[in-house]
Design goal:
By secondary structure, the protein is mainly α. It has helices spanning 9-29, 34-47, 53-60, 63-81, 84-93, 99-114, 119-137, 141-153, 164-173, 189-207, 227-241, 254-267, 272-278, 281-299, 302-311, 318-333, 338-356, 361-373, 383-394, 401-427; strands at residues 182-183, 186-187. 46% of the residues are buried.
């Protein structure tokens, strides 16, 4: 589609730079709906002629990512309503005798569930169990909900579908579900992330060492439906084993997401309206806008200019660049939304790797781990943390920053550190 151009190429660069800077400022400020900010920026870039509507909505927006996100979002709600997590938790907790092991089990369950569904849903799912245990043993709910929230955030790169940035990376690089575990004849991002999560769990076990009260949980008869679990398994098999790269026009893994979401609504028809109402549509609209903004930023050459500058800086070796990408992402994602940051940094990582003459995947992986786990560093760095803190405040708890940091920082830093070391040893 031919679209008008009223600005020179250099002016388009400057206008795009101003637009993306203001957009990120609004996202960081968070006093307005961030979906409005990204969509307004996208519309503005179209109206001033820097990008055209067809390219913006058909080429710039990755509809496969959105479809997978929607499908697994629908499944997550159906999975919660199936009572499977509550059934598993009850069956395990009746056998646990000490408080520290009960809390550790909730953290492990949060990790497992968050590897396949949205973190806020997991916090909502497990909060009643945490409240029940703390009521029975007369313990503080604060450590329980914070531990569950940060545990749900530490696994954002364990699977391809754990979090939108993981889906975005997979789509941008052509990785499939199994590539997250073994890729280019090396252990891959998901495997490294599992190792990091296990090390993080050890820090929790150390911090829970004095929680030795007896826990008595009564076995409950919980009626469950295993249909969502069957759907989940089938969808993973489809993502992992269907040769999407060889299907030409049908190379759209998003079809799995669309099918999964639609079937989830059908099998959960009693609460289908509630599922559609509860789904995070705001994130979908935010993603549409930010896809267009980042693609336009790339098309006008801003990302290439920034990457070239960064690649020719005085940082020196790939080892230093890897450290900068990892720990810089940890710091930035503690207050910047990880979705636009990931979309911005993927082409930057690629250009820097090209300049250095190295494989881009260690930079991709390091950046993604840093931005995924870095949200744990502050109580407002991830939605799950905000939700957990809100639950605590509603129950009269004051979320003390020092107490939060004492639990979250060793947990998160240890996970990132082990992945950093392994990336250096295996990939560089």
């Amino acid at each position: 589609m031919i679209w008008y151009h009223i600005l020179s190429p250099d002016t388009e660069k400057w206008v795009t730079l101003v637009v993306i800077t203001v957009t990120f400022a609004f996202i960081l400020y968070r006093r307005f709906n961030i979906a409005y900010a990204s969509l307004a920026a996208a519309v503005l870039l179209v109206l001033v002629g820097i990008t055209n509507p067809v390219e913006a909505f058909l080429k710039s927006v990755n509809w496969d990512v959105l479809a997978i996100y929607w499908g697994y979002g629908m499944l997550a709600i159906a999975f919660r309503e199936s009572k499977i997590p509550a059934w598993i938790a009850n069956r395990v907790l009746v056998r646990v005798k000490k408080e520290k092991y009960a809390l550790l089990f909730l953290c492990v369950l949060a990790m497992v569930l968050s590897s396949f569904m949205a973190n806020p849903v997991v916090v909502i799912m497990l909060a009643p169990l945490a409240i029940e245990i703390t009521t029975k043993v007369k313990a503080s709910l604060l450590i329980y909900l914070i531990a569950i929230a940060i545990s749900s955030n530490v696994v954002t790169t364990v699977t391809m579908i754990a979090d939108p940035p993981a889906i975005i990376l997979a789509s941008a690089t052509g990785m499939d579900f199994l590539d997250f575990y073994w890729f280019q004849s090396k252990v891959s991002l998901g495997t490294l992330s599992i190792m990091g999560a296990l090390v993080a769990l050890l820090t929790l076990l150390f911090q829970f060492r004095r929680l030795n009260k007896q826990v008595i949980i009564t076995k409950e008869m919980i009626k469950v439906s295993f249909t969502p679990l069957v759907l989940f398994v089938l969808s993973i098999l489809a993502l992992a084993f269907v040769p999407w790269k060889h299907l030409d026009a049908w190379n759209h893994p998003g079809l799995v997401g669309l099918t999964l979401g639609s079937v989830s609504l059908v099998i959960s028809k009693r609460w289908a309206k509630d599922m559609l109402r509860e789904f995070d549509w705001n994130s979908i609209f935010f993603l549409i806008g930010i896809f267009i903004v980042i693609a336009t930023t790339d098309n006008v050459g801003l990302l290439k200019d920034f990457s070239a500058w960064l690649g020719h800086s005085s940082l020196g070796s790939p080892t230093i660049y890897l450290a900068v990408f990892i720990w810089g992402s940890v710091c930035l994602s503690s207050f910047i939304d990880n979705v636009p940051y990931t979309m911005l940094m993927i082409p930057v990582c690629a250009e820097v790797a090209h300049t250095l003459g190295i494989n881009p995947f260690p930079l991709y992986f390091g950046m993604l781990v840093g931005t995924g786990i870095g949200g744990n560093i502050t109580p407002v760095g991830a939605t799950a943390n905000v939700l957990a803190c809100g639950m605590l405040e509603k129950r009269g708890y004051k979320v003390n920053l020092s107490k939060y940091l004492a639990l979250a920082v060793p947990f998160s830093v240890s996970a990132v550190l082990i992945v950093h070391v392994l990336l250096e040893l295996v990939w560089l």
